[in-house]
Predict the 3D structure of the following.
Amino acid sequence: MDLLKRENFSSGAPLEEKAGYSRAVKVGNFVFVGGTTTTNPEGVVEAEGDAYRQTQIILQKIETVLIQAGAQLSEVYRVRLYVTDIKRAAEYIQAYSEFFKEIKPVITMAEVAALARPAHLVEIEAEAIIGSYLVSSH
């Protein structure tokens, strides 16, 4: 049996080493990006109170780690957004569409009671398959 190569990608956040998790994991041509927030490497939550800007920052972070793993946004097939206030869905979707309007991955948005920090309004996961491309939309 052939084993698939696995690579872990870090964002540099101190908690990754302490807790034992990666920003993304690449297995073969699959890239899995774990829950991403706006907490920067210094531990500061960026864009506090701004759902639109938090979503933008997170998706930029996701794009960066995808590129590090050899993937690109156009290869993303699934995105999950966990939000603390579903009434702000238009703000999350406005930022999301700036990245994915033409790509059209499957998406889930779910309201949760809380995220790791009270200042987090959204946490996003993404999955990509390197080498995949759109052939049609139905």
Q: What stands out?
A: The domain at 6-129 is CATH 3.30.1330.40 (60s Ribosomal Protein L30; Chain: A;). The longest strand covers residues 76-83. DSSP finds three helices and six strands in the chain. The beta strands are 6-9, 24-27, 30-36, 76-83, 106-111, 122-129.
